[in-house]
């Protein structure tokens, strides 16, 4: 295989010291700025906003359609006795990997000559593959979602996208990606990556809330408490990512939002969407970009890189035998593991089986929200 595994972006963050070095890097700053620029591009704009859609944006949308078609070629297998991930996901993942690295799905889908360079192509293939979850654990979380943002960022750095494309990247491309992920989550019963459960924002995603709050931040009538109004969710769920995410949660969890997603319920008490929007940025920096259990899976390639060695790379490493259980990374400290140490059944599986998809709440586990 021409694009060998050894050429692909790899994870390097193992410790808090590694993460601190990364947070001082150009890659971290460009990644955060890219997310903030996308947020600005969708501020006050519903999903149907008539933004310009360039040829390159259209081709990425077509690419996502092709990936959904690949998934349809690998239907879920009989798995009624389990609420954990469906093993057919591995067949989909393997097929997608083959299409990307052997059959050149990217270069045949995107005509831009900018992605043909050896400096960016393997990075793009890897980030896109990892955007859809983990093959071994059959799970998905905010770290995988971040891989899709890295995919878009590398395309931007290679000149495939310009800042004029930013509104469409959120309202069309990212929105289509989220729709595809909900299909995959529902078909393959992907498990939540990590164990935040009911005391996290959401089982799977973060950015629909960050971008969605920005969309609503200038709305004249809708307020954060509107998430409790089913008529509002039905009328506006397709126009605003935040409301659409709430509607999806309600569709797969039978318990009230207070019990299934208490942090979202708490956030609904904030007075304005503008305040929610600012709080989402703070929370994303702290809970995603600022957490070792999430960022230890961040992939460094030729485009998104860190110059020199990280602190843990200068220290003696455990032997391969000693490191097998943790697969070369650490797990978070707390009541539950914060990474991949504890399997969490899919609440989507529970809802499709006709049972309550409610995870138990642990007193004191909910952190204060940074919206002040």
From TrEMBL:
Keywords of the record: Cytoplasm, Isomerase, Rotamase
Keyword Cytoplasm: yes
Keyword Isomerase found: yes
EC numbers on record: 5.2.1.8
Family annotation (CDD domains): PTPA
Catalytic activity: [protein]-peptidylproline (omega=180) = [protein]-peptidylproline (omega=0)
Predominant localisation class: cytoplasm
Location(s), subcellular: Cytoplasm
Protein origin, superkingdom: Eukaryota
Family, as annotated: Belongs to the PTPA-type PPIase family.
Function: PPIases accelerate the folding of proteins. It catalyzes the cis-trans isomerization of proline imidic peptide bonds in oligopeptides.
The name this protein goes by in its record: Serine/threonine-protein phosphatase 2A activator
Organism field: Myxozyma melibiosi
